[in-house]
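Purpose: get a first structural picture of the assembly so the mutagenesis plan has something to point at.
Setup: two entries, given in the order below. No constraints added.
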Amino acid sequence: MTFPVGRATRRLAIALVFLAPSLALFAAFVFVPLTRTLYISLFFTTPTGRLAAFAGLEQYVELLTSALFRSGILASTLFALYSVPFGIALALLLAVLANQRLRGINFFRTLMSSTIAVSAAVGSLLFLMLYNPSLGLLNYLLSLLGLRGIAWLQDPGSAVVSLSVTTMWLVLGFNIIVLLAGLQGVPEELYEAAKLDGASGAMLFFRITVPLVSPFLFFLLVVDTIQVLQAFTQIHVLTRGGPVDATRTIVYSLYLDAFQNFQFGFASAQAFVLFLIVLVLTVLQFRYIEPRVHYQ
Amino acid sequence: MPVRVSPARRALVYLLLALASLAVVFPLLLAFSYSFMSESEIATYPPPLLPRAPTLDNYARVIATIPIGRYLVNSFVVSALVVLGQIITASLAAFAFVFLEFRWKTALFFIFLSTLMVPWEATIIPNYMTIRDLGWLDTYQGLAVPFMATAFGTFLLRQSFLQIPRDLRDAAVIDGAGPLRLLAMVVIPLARPALGTVAVYGFLSTWNQYFWPLLVTNQTLMRTTQIGVVQLRFEETLRWGLVMAGVMMIALPTLALLVLGQRQLVRGLTAGAVKG
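Result (structure tokens, whole complex):
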């Protein structure tokens, strides 16, 4: 859309007044620090974090050619693929189940969304207890079914799954609350009319519920993906990146390089690459998925 | 008028609700149960579900080990400050993105979203330096101010504002309402559930922070609840009962908030407009 110059500038100025409080805080605590991170990544650093010598793109080349970084990309990808789609689908099923006019429904809604009140540290401690190979309840339940216990966190294949299950549980409450808010925005008259036309439950779900809450599904897709790619606490408490680097995601890798190996320049390069990956992924989601979202 | 549901179908729905709810809260229930068990009982096989001889020893030991009351106050004050800041900044910004037409809107929206994508680990060292240089270490503003703007909340409010029927917006504009009036009189009342979601989420996520409070607080009395529970984890011997008692003490306030805020959270986004 184009405006006459004076009018367009005035509209922009009005909008900026509304955006200014947010923009000022973002500048101070996100953009300026991010720029400083990029700056540091172009230098070799001393173990205390002081800039030692200009490195240019050398650390980026080292990063992109290292096998550890490629396995980190794989770990992050698996982690996101396991936890985000299943986490949203599960939350939608539970939210639809809880979106009923029944006596005492708020009680069930509160229970189902209660994990939003649980911190990543606490949730991870709970699952650490459940995953415990000898004392944990999960392997005991398997033994009751006559199955052999699983080395939940000690096996490279199952560790990512265990991490994803913990993460799905942690974000479940948030996802359900958002989807319940969305479901409440769907006019009941639509369901009544469709039922009068003889629509089945599945048709109601796919033709009315899913399209009308799609702004919220899309919101969760974007936010959950970003959150999972930045997850740190679960990994730190449950697996510490292991076993055999199976859960050494990009974020955990940059943490190890910065705060265990004290290579701040190299870690900053990883942080910046992670930032670029998430940025590109989100732009793609907006370009290819948002057009399918139905706004009333 | 609600559709009439058969008693059998209603019973099935209740059964499904009960099973799903139980599955979700099971880890918390188990932790609650463990917090009343002695260490020797937790170590028995098969794993016990309920304490045979419930004891408050674990709670007494938490209180003796860390200043948990002060931690709770600190977490509460910081979380409340963050919520107040976020509600103001996010509703102003979301309003601009939905109701105002201006140049570079898409670019500015992506600037907001890009803040969600900046890994906290990528900015935490420069941010620490900023807070230190301001002299804000060991202060509530040092813990709260960096989180007072929220791209996440702005995004959620944007999606909510977009659900507001177009004719309602148009009606307000035709009435000659200016932007601020439109925001206060039309948008905010209709978006109350989404605002509630933002407020409760902001409170909980601040309450549950770990990394940042650890960095910007050094004095014991300025620390927050999450630091406390991890301190318990790293006592000389790992006592699951002690850790779970600590977990319960810091999780209960937020679970209580969820119970109180639930109605606000799930109320219809545009129900008032559709039915009014």
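The two ends of chain B are 15 Å apart (CA to CA).
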